[in-house]
C-alpha cells in the first residue's frame, strides 16, 4: 500500500516535468527563430572608364607653326603660349596659316576672358 502514493507521486512528477520541458521548447523556438540564409547584395552595374578627350586637329599643325614662331625666347616661354593661342585661333578660324596662306579672323582670340593675339 505504501507503493501507491509513491507511484502517484512519480507519475505527477513525470507529468509536470514533461509539461515544463514542452513549455521551454516552445519559448525557445519563439524567441530564436531558425536563422535565414544570407541574402546577397544586389550587383552594381559595371561603370565604364571615361573616354579620353579627343586630340584637337590643330595640335600637330600648331606644333610646326610654333617651332618657327620666336626662336630667341627659352623653350617653355616660346612653345606654351604660342600653342595655346594657335590652337584657340585655329579652332576659331578653322585653319592655321601655313606658308603664304592667310586665314580670315586670325587676329585675336579670347580665352577665359583674357585676350590673346594669334601668333604671327
Plain-language structure description:
The relative contact order is 0.09. With 120 residues, the protein is mainly alpha-helical. It has a domain of 59 residues. Helix 2 crosses helix 3. It is built from three helices and two strands; from the N terminus they run αααββ. A two-stranded antiparallel sheet has the order 1-2. Keywords: Signal.
What percentage of the residues does DSSP assign to strands (E)?
Answer: 5-15%
**Structural class of the helix and strand makeup?**
mainly alpha
Going across the biggest sheet, name each strand in turn. 1-2
Low-confidence stretches: none
- Distance from N terminus to C terminus (CA atoms, Å) equals 133 Å
Mean pLDDT: 76
Counting DSSP H or I runs of 4 or more residues, the number of helices is 3
Overall shape: rod-shaped
Tell me the helix content: 40-55%
Strand elements, count: 2
Strand-and-helix sequence, N→C? HHHEE
What gyration radius follows from the Cα positions, in whole Å?
Answer: 45 Å
> Biggest sheet: strands, sense, closure?
2 strands, antiparallel
Biased composition (Low complexity): 37-46
Keywords: Signal
Signal peptide: 1-26
Region (Disordered): 27-48
